[in-house]
Write a structure and sequence with these properties.
The protein has 26 helices and 32 strands. It is α+β, with helices and mostly antiparallel strands. Strand 5 (169-170) and strand 6 (173-174) form a beta hairpin. The mean pLDDT is 95.
């Protein structure tokens, strides 16, 4: 009976599909457990990163079913997005058939891996029975005051007359036309995620089972800081007031040292002040150049800080001294007010900018015992100290002066205390076809009207032109022109950011057939929050933050009673080849299909779980795959040809069985799959020595089932002969008393250094192990050359002899 994985895997795949083996059970006597891996974009082909992610979740789900839980383990497809639209433009076809073909292909691959998904729960975000509820949720957010429109900057291709995503801008040029990309300000839709900034921040403390680095990344992204808003009057060179500019700073103690003020190139004052600037042409040219740079490039501290003088002045409200007004590329609209007061002596970026532009500097904080001079500085002084040259605040500690100067500004009505967040409202408008249409209308006066609930969903039209020029929805007259309540309107042609789709899909899985609501509240409450969520660290901020935000909004809409969507989060490591990330462009990818065809899905699964701890990167190894295959062959032979292995040492086998079940149970619960599989390998080795009986083999197969489900099912049929499935059998129990070794190894130290190791009976008395230690040849010589002061004994582990 040879191990033929392809044949037996195909057999069981058909059997599972025909019996709907993985349909979610809802036994009221059992506890619920929700396992979810981040759903994929249907690119059409699984890669090894997918295999690792989904195999981890599947192993846990199968284990929890055997432990007696009702397990929800669904799968769907995050199927709107740019690649499908690009394919549509390239082939001049609608994206739907391309996407559906890819979904079908990936679904087949997922099944071939033996992943036990409840396909009755399947969803695809590009289907109207899903995006209908995107639009419904959008309208409810409009009613709640969480949706608004304002101008925002986009990447604009002047040849194709279209908005480009950041990833479509290559070296400053449009990916399709090759034209120089411009920045353009257009009116777009935003969600007020900032209304939930404080709750999103404080509730991170509730997430005890999330990786600390993910929580730290979200905390930094939300970016709460305490500071002061300060009003500077902007004047021309004749002293005429033009505007009042508000800056935010966490360092009001340095205000007397401000020598210039900088605006972000996107700041609205750049446009309103341009006509008043004597350097108008230079400023205009610089703004265009600066805005062509990415935010990452502009924020890079290693880059030279660039800027242009407006030729106007900002009046410092604490001393009425004029500061130069600059537009600078290192100032971003993403934080504060998009304007900064610059204190070169006490901020490194300001220091570098001032040096580069030969601007004035003024020291206003100095160490307690030293008087700093500008000419002595080779970098900004950013430590604490006492204030100098700061009017009535001179001599104060700078830490105390922060509050004192803020209070002074408040009294003068030129400043105020401010809690600031780095988090910005969520821009969801996309000027593309392949996304959820935004359910808003415009009347003849340009005012917005929400599409009524009975008119949802707003469906994507098919009479569109995919030529890469502009938004395809603009080409559909039937889509744009609509009537509601007998009145004529123009429909919004923007679609939603695809992160909207993935921000609540886990809730829809709880009740994916509902046609009246996004999901039933009782059903969602029964399953949520997700007991175990699994996905890559690259989603630590945006997806996970948006999902947390949506959950809180749904709670406040009365749709669900939970505060957080994911109780536990696991971020698995990447799959590498020769130490590098797998990439098609590099040519170092491994095709999962090829591995399955050669070795079978069970081998692929076993290696991917055994090769490294799940949180760490896994280096692909052909020899490791071969080793996993050989192990499964040995295990198959043990069960299929058990008569060749008559039991000769029941006591040893029984002890090893109990130790293995205990260890594998604990290992799976803490996601230590590699050590769990190692325990099974040890058990198989023991069985080859002790022989086997049917009961021991059934326990072995049950412990194998989460990792290699096809082989486990095949062997269970051979062993049980009752037609049942191993995957619905009860997880084996163990006898704690039979997991303890009767003999232990005790380390013998002399003055803290290991000198011997002695095998002794468990719980040996201190005087007995001392006697054995004193007789050990490696220990004797130390006793002969010194005097024993005391013996320190840690039972069953260590004896330390302290010798003088």
């Amino acid at each position: 009976m040879d191990y033929n994985p392809q044949e037996l895997e195909e057999k069981w795949l058909k059997s599972w599909q025909s019996t709907n083996a993985f349909k979610t059970q809802t036994d009221p006597k059992k506890e619920n457990y929700y396992v979810l891996e981040m759903f994929p974009y249907p690119s059409g082909k699984l890669h090894m990163g997918h295999v690792r992610n989904y195999t981890i979740g599947d192993a846990l789900a199968r284990f929890k079913i055997m432990e007696g839980f009702n397990v929800l383990h669904p799968m769907g497809f995050d199927s709107f997005g740019l690649p499908a639209e690009n394919a549509a433009i390239k082939n001049k076809i609608n994206p739907l058939p391309w996407t559906q073909d890819n979904i079908d292909e990936m679904k087949s691959q997922l099944n071939r891996l033996g992943l036990g998904y409840d396909w009755d729960r399947e969803l695809a975000t590009c289907k109207k029975d899903y995006y209908h509820w995107n639009q419904w949720l959008f309208t409810k957010m409009v009613d709640k005051g969480l949706i608004y429109r304002k101008k925002g900057w986009v990447n604009w291709d002047p040849v194709d007359n279209t908005v480009l995503a950041n990833e479509q801008v290559i070296d400053g040029k449009g990916w399709r036309s090759g034209a120089d990309v411009e920045k353009k300000e257009i009116v777009q839709w935003y969600i007020k995620i900032t209304d939930y900034a404080e709750e999103l921040l404080t509730d991170l403390d509730k997430l005890d089972h999330w990786p600390e680095r993910v929580k730290a990344m979200q905390k930094n992204w939300i970016g709460k800081s305490f500071g002061t808003e300060i009003d500077f009057d902007i004047c021309d060179t004749d002293g005429n007031k033009l505007e009042t500019l508000t800056v935010f700073t966490t360092r009001p103690d340095t205000l007397f040292g401000a020598t210039y003020v900088s605006l972000a190139p996107e700041h609205p004052f750049c446009e309103s002040l341009l006509e008043k600037s004597p350097n108008k042409d230079k400023v205009k040219s610089f703004i265009k150049t600066a805005m062509a740079k990415s935010a990452i490039e502009r924020g890079d501290d290693s880059k030279t800080k660039e800027g242009v003088d407006f030729g106007l002045v900002a009046i410092n409200p604490v001393n009425n001294e004029p500061c130069k007004l600059y537009v600078a590329d290192y100032v971003l609209m993403d934080y504060g007010t998009g304007a900064v007061m610059a204190v070169p002596t006490h901020d490194q970026r300001d220091f570098e900018f001032a040096k580069n532009h030969k601007l004035d500097m003024k020291v206003v904080i100095t160490p307690e015992d030293t008087l700093l001079k500008v000419e002595d500085l080779t970098e900004a002084y950013t430590d604490n100290g006492k204030l100098v040259d700061s009017g009535q605040f001179t001599g104060q500690k700078n830490t105390e002066a922060k509050a004192a100067i803020t209070d002074f500004l408040v009294s003068k009505k030129t400043g105020r205390k401010k809690v600031q967040y780095r988090l910005r409202d969520w821009l969801i408008s996309r000027q593309r076809y392949w996304g959820t249409p935004i359910p808003m209308l415009y009347n003849e006066d340009g005012n917005t009207v929400t599409v009524k609930e009975e008119n949802l969903p707003v469906e994507l039209p098919t009479d569109v032109t995919f030529d890469g020029k502009g938004n395809p929805l603009e080409s559909s007259e039937s889509f744009k022109n609509v009537k509601q309540d007998g009145k004529s309107y123009t429909r919004e042609t923007d679609t939603m950011d695809t992160f909207f789709d993935s921000s609540w899909y886990f809730l829809r899985f709880c009740d994916n057939k509902n046609t009246s609501l996004p999901f039933d509240k009782d059903k969602a409450n029964a399953w949520m929050g997700v007991d175990q969520y699994i996905g890559g660290i690259e989603h630590a901020i945006l997806h996970l933050l948006y999902a947390r935000f949506f959950t809180k909004v749904c709670r406040d809409l009365g749709l669900v009673d939970i505060d957080e969507p994911f109780n536990r989060l696991l971020c698995q490591g990447m799959v590498l080849k020769d130490g590098s990330k797998m990439s098609k462009s590099v040519g170092n990818t491994v095709d999962p299909d090829a591995i399955i065809k050669k070795y079978g899905a069970d081998t692929a699964r076993l290696f991917i779980l055994f090769g490294a701890p799940v949180e760490r990167d896994l280096d692909w190894s052909d020899t490791g795959v071969e080793g996993s295959f050989r192990f499964l062959k040995r295990l198959h032979r043990l069960c299929a040809c058990s008569n060749e292995f008559p039991l000769t040492d029941n006591a040893t086998l029984e002890k090893q069985l109990n130790k293995t079940v205990k260890a594998v149970t604990e290992d799976i619960n803490r996601f230590s799959f590699n050590t769990a599989i190692s325990r099974l390998m040890e058990l198989v080795n023991t069985m080859y020595q002790t022989g086997v009986n049917p009961g021991s083999l059934k326990i072995l197969v049950q412990c194998l089932a989460p990792f290699a489900p096809f082989l486990a099912e095949e062997l269970w049929q051979i062993l049980s002969k009752d037609g049942s499935s191993v995957h619905t059998s009860s997880w084996p129990s163990f006898d704690e008393s039979k997991t303890v070794d009767n003999e232990v190894t005790i380390v013998i130290q002399v003055n803290g250094k290991v000198r011997a190791k002695i095998n002794a009976a468990r719980d040996i008395a201190k005087e007995d192990i001392e006697k054995q230690a004193f007789e050990d040849e490696n220990v004797k010589k130390y006793l002969e050359n010194g005097s024993l002061l005391k013996c320190i004994y840690i039972p069953n582990k260590l004896l330390n002899l302290v010798i003088k």
